[in-house]
Design a protein that fits this description.
It holds the Pfam family Glycos_transf_1. The structure is a single chain. Helix 9 crosses helix 13. This protein is an alpha/beta fold. The strands form three sheets. The protein has a seven-stranded parallel beta sheet with strand order 3-2-1-4-5-7-8. A six-stranded parallel beta sheet has the order 11-10-9-12-14-15, with helices on both faces.
């Protein structure tokens, strides 16, 4: 018997948080029973494309959605569903844009239409406008308007956490939590891996290693990350920053580091496939995002026993071990630097059991997801 096929809807399958999360599920699900296909909205090749095809998935590529004038997109999607009429489950991860594909999925009477919340966007105010700029504020304003329609064409509401779900669907809405689960054993601290990677990256053993993993987009607040690192260096020259990821703002951030004269202390590693191993090197994971949903990288950091200093805009749901502390973005970079330098990094915790107990391990979560899909396909 052929497996049921679930259409997962994304912008592009690069190494973002939601994309990495669904790939964790995809690798672990029983693909003899459930297969994933992907509808994306960028034509270029993405980081996960080859792995998806290797696992048996199909990738369909449409043009980007124009939220102001979606007519051409609707037309293209109608053609798609006419040609692929066998999908009974459409699972959209586009946050406020989920209304667009699910509207047409409803038109074609697809019985299971899931909107999945991955982010809780911070409110718009004078402070956010100053920090994020008018362009990003305009994008946020459109998303605030669009979220009012997300539930109109859904049959099920999913969220990575309480905060993200309440933001997208409304405080009184009922939604199902689907945890940003990880393979916790893969991230468990391994001293041999840490030593090997320290040598490979040419980092001396007594160096304090700060780390960050995230796409270079305004949400992640890389500019402030650089300010924090510069302030830390003023107090302790024996430290480095490892920045993993890529994105439209990377060149500007690298230029800022150069202007501050600290570029030789930062390793800009770009997109990497060896994230679990890199976490073995980090002493402190610094994460000053303006807003998030429930960032899987913070679960990964804690699984690796890495200390975390994160912005208090992030949901406390990520607080699953004693390795994490929260700071206000209203605090100056110097305050963040002092917190970083007083953090005890002498010992890394073995947190696999804590991650499992908090229900962020991939095995049990995948079984629950698989059961849901199979039940929906049988209706």
């Amino acid at each position: 018997m052929a497996p049921i096929r679930v259409l997962q809807v994304f912008t592009i399958m690069n190494r973002g948080g939601a994309e990495s999360m669904i790939m964790n599920y995809y690798r672990n699900i029983d693909r003899d029973q459930v297969q994933f296909d992907f509808l994306v909205h960028r034509k270029e090749k993405a980081a996960f494309d080859e792995e998806i095809e290797r696992l048996g998935g199909k990738i369909y590529k449409l043009d980007p959605i124009n939220p102001v004038s979606p007519g051409k997109y609707y037309e293209a999607l109608r053609i798609f569903f006419k040609e692929h009429s066998d999908y009974a489950i459409v699972h959209s991860h586009l946050n406020t844009f989920s209304n667009f594909p699910l509207k047409i999925a409803k038109e074609f009477n697809i019985p299971c239409r899931i909107a999945h919340a991955h982010i809780a966007i911070s409110e718009i105010n004078l402070s956010s406008i100053r920090k994020e700029g008018l362009k990003e504020t305009a994008k946020k304003w459109i998303k605030f308007r669009l979220r009012q329609k997300v539930k109109d064409n859904t049959t099920h509401l999913f969220s990575c956490g309480e905060k993200a779900g309440k933001w997208l669907f409304g405080k009184e809405s009922s939604f199902q939590l689907m945890n940003n689960a990880i393979d916790s054993k893969k991230f468990a601290y391994n001293e041999d891996v840490a030593r090997t990677y320290m040598n490979t990256l040419n980092i001396k053993e007594d160096t304090l290693v700060l780390g960050h993993v995230g796409r270079y987009a305004s949400q992640k607040n890389h500019a402030f990350l650089i300010d924090i690192f510069a302030a830390t260096l003023k107090k302790n020259q024996n430290c480095v920053l490892i920045s993993v990821g890529d994105g439209p703002l990377r060149a500007g951030i690298e230029q800022k580091a150069k202007a501050l004269g600290i570029e030789d202390k930062i390793l800009f590693l770009g997109v990497r496939e060896d994230i679990p191993a890199l976490f073995q090197v980090f002493d402190i994971f610094v994460f000053p995002s303006f807003y998030e949903g429930l960032p899987v990288t913070l679960i990964e950091a804690q699984a690796a026993g890495v200390k975390v200093v994160a912005s208090d805009t992030i949901t406390s749901e990520v607080h699953v071990t004693d390795e994490i502390a929260f700071l206000s973005l209203q605090k100056e970079a110097d305050v963040w630097a002092k917190t970083i330098l007083k953090t005890d990094t002498s010992k890394k915790g073995q947190n696999t059991d804590k991650i499992i107990d908090a229900n962020y391990d991939i095995v049990s979560n995948t079984l629950a997801m698989e059961k849901f899909y199979l039940e929906q396909s049988a209706i």
